[in-house]
What we know:
The chain is an alpha+beta fold. It is built from three helices and eleven strands. The protein has helices spanning 9-17, 89-101, 187-196, and strands at 27-28, 36-37, 41-43, 52-56, 61-66, 73-82, 112-124, 127-138, 151-162, 165-178, 199-200. The strands form two sheets. An eight-stranded antiparallel sheet has the order 1-4-5-6-10-9-8-7, with helices on both faces. It has a three-stranded antiparallel sheet with strand order 2-3-11. The longest helix is centred in the middle third of the chain and has 13 residues, at 89-101. The radius of gyration is 16 Å and the shape is globular. The mean pLDDT is 87.
Amino acid sequence: MSKLSRIAVLLSAIIFAGCAPKQPNFQMVESPPKAIVQNGYSFTPLDEPEWYIIGRTPITVALAKRGASTDETCAVQGNIFPIAKFESDEAFVAAVKQGQANDADIANPERFKVLTHDVSLYAHKGEPCAFSHIVTEDHAAKKRSKTEGMMILDIYALVCRHPQNRHAAISINYSQRSYAESRDAGIAEKSQHLFNSVEFTTLQ
């Protein structure tokens, strides 16, 4: 089994961030929000208006909302996937970082310029997890407007091995796609609030 050879954090954030929620097509998140329970994990969405569930299966879920401008969006993705056994927590964190680093646009390798990629060991609900912060410049962002210039993709990610099965890991990502001049100074606080709500549920 591959040791997290690739974790699609960057490209999945791009895909979901590029989906502008439309009321007729997607389910709106309740206000105040209730926990979204998946196979193996749950989390409570941020208490903000106009979050939509844009995709959901028993193991994956994706939420999105519009940002300050037409091209700007916020997204949350949850997933559970198989992993190999690691000899130490540090080896797990290193594998997460390498898997995220391997995530790229193969068709356009010059598209992203990574400005920040920090990964650290993080204790969550008694479990050793990997906490990531990734900031990239997107020089080929798909836009709905004619605004020129690159966009910034700011991603926070929490990856944890499931306490019920060490060969399964959950991943929760919070991302914002924006222009450089309108980056959200509160993104770290928002992602932390989201991650604090993450619970491990029974694996089916």
